[in-house]
Amino acid sequence: MEIIDILLAASFWEAAIRIATPLIFGVLGALVCERAGVLNLGIEGIFTAGAMAGWMAVWLGAGLWAGVLVAALAGAFFGLIHAILTVPLGLSQHVSGIGVTLLATSLSYFTYRTALPDVSSPPRIEPFRPLDIPFLSDLPFIGQALFSQTAMTMLALVLVFVTGWVLYRTPLGLAIRAVGDNPSSVEAQGLSVYGLRIGAVVVGSSLMALGGAFLTMSAFDAFFFGMINGRGWVCIALTVFASWRPGKALIGALLFGAFDAFQVRLQTEVGAFLPSQVFLMMPYILSIIALIVVARKADYPKALLVPWFKGQR
Amino acid sequence: MIRFEPRANPGPVLTYGVPVIAAAIAILLAAIPLALADAPIIRAYGLMISGAFGSVFSISEMLTRATPLILTGLAAAIAFRAKLWNIGAEGQLYMGAMAAVAIGSGVIDGPSWIMIPVVMIAGAIAGALMLIGPTLMKTRLGVDEVVTTLLLNFIVLLFVQMMLEGALKDPMSMGWPQSEPIIDSAVFPPLIERMRVHFGLIIALVSAIALAVFVKRTVWGFEIRAVGENAAAAKFAGISVTKTMILVAALSGGLAGLAGVAEVAGTRGYLATDLSPGYGYAGIVVAMLARLSPVGVIASALFVASVFVGADSMSRAIGVSSYLADLIVAMALLCVLIGGFLTRFTVHFDRKTAG
């Protein structure tokens, strides 16, 4: 009955939501890009850039929310590079995305090393503190699991609703979805395909960068090399799993977080029998399984990966 | 208004000139981070050049670096030709290295002319299988190979770690996670006395030329190009897209696996989790700089290798972070992408006119 005990503990759900938070940012960002027809494999590097830029801003003396803004701007910058290469120039989204990941990662590492040439242990900042909301944080179970997270987790949850509302309840969202399905129809209505796509990629990339910023400014309090560790790629898989819907993205990220939190606890129970690497592999294997499960019925945006040029019918 | 018009025939000057210019621009752009790091810019460039070409030793180091890069570059080139987006060369490299170590560290023994081909074949098969899996998932189940190959890089690295702490652990390594060394008869001989550049370079060069001939002169090569250009048309013409994809996967994964073999049997002598500083990912840049041409891969791998070796040596001399090399390589990739666009299109700046 140990498994039931694990699943019923508030601390377990607290960990699950914490693990899910960067993924929520990342999947939201990826789905905004992909809904507009652009695959953004820059995500892994944009996570790194957001993590580094946000952390460094705070380390240099900025406030935490200013750090979040700096991270978002860093994401927007790399998103703009990807957008220019893939939208008006129509270049391969795969290759451009990998290029942006290499650029953002190496620029982040170079900047970090240049600013801190010889530190042995990464310097720490004062990160976001767990919230202490009167009444709510004192509720049994949910008070600990949800209302004692940090403000960035709350931001992620709010952004799920904002993204869903914009995509499905506003003319802008309609246009973004249309530009990822049938760009020529959008042009026929007098809207700018390039403008919509570039805007979506830039906004989506800032969301991704917030996922990175959460890691250095909320989950941990320092930046270190290799800390993103494939989280960006996991988000790309979860986006397919979520069939490009913000609500399902939240569920997917939470399921993923729950599973990851569960395997950590399982490891302490049965870790003596299996090498630790088996548990560390789980998130990646789970992502691949998630892809296989939905592959048959995945309803990709119809114009995803397809470049569109002005004056083309 | 800016207008793009397709160019009818780019011609050889543009085709071969653009990658060179892109690489040069990336090198020049490195002046910005150098200036931000307060480094003496001219001296830094001088140190990079002498670090990569200044002596027989530095050229040997550069060629040693180029060896795995040629192989992973070829792996990316052949896969991207067929629009099989293999981003998993890093994992395939490690699987190849692990297979080479598993079979070449004393399980069997024999003369070099048997052992060297045996570890090469083992590594190539391991790398190939590593990509055939995701390719079958793509063709049979419709699972996107980009994400699966990317995620497999992480899984493989953890698997290698696990094996190095378990079945492949060297009992003499004092607890350090590394494999037993490759036996002498399986070690790639050096090409120059007392230098690190080794027989793997010959394998890489021969692979590049063989792949070029294969793609240009054989029916299979034609089918690969046809599937890459238009899979639907190729299918209509009676080419089995699935079979072609699996052939490409075997070649691409096999080449990446060979890169791993070359690293353990030629450079390192044993397997550890820091065997590759991202050769798999850098191979993508090498392939793009080469415009996916197998022979071009040789030249672009030499360029990327000299950036790495040159920046490493510059970094040791004046203390600028060696991540500068990764930065230059990433910028070169983006520059060559833009350059590729400019060879296919001409840019017109129109004055706004009525209508």
TrEMBL record, chain A:
InterPro entries: ABC_transp_permease. It is a multi-pass membrane protein. It is found in: Cell membrane. The chain crosses the membrane at residues 6-31, 38-58, 64-87, 94-112, 146-168, 194-216, 278-295. CDD domains: TM_PBP1_transp_TpRbsC_like. Pfam families: BPD_transp_2. Keywords: Cell membrane, Membrane, Transmembrane, Transmembrane helix. It comes from the Bacteria. This is ABC transporter permease. It comes from Thalassospira povalilytica.
From TrEMBL, chain B:
The keyword Membrane applies. It is a multi-pass membrane protein. Keywords: Cell membrane, Membrane, Transmembrane, Transmembrane helix. InterPro entries: ABC_transp_permease. It holds the Pfam family BPD_transp_2. The chain crosses the membrane at residues 16-37, 44-60, 91-108, 114-134, 146-164, 197-215, 236-259, 279-311, 323-342. Its main location: membrane. It is found in: Cell membrane. This is ABC transporter permease. It comes from Thalassospira povalilytica.
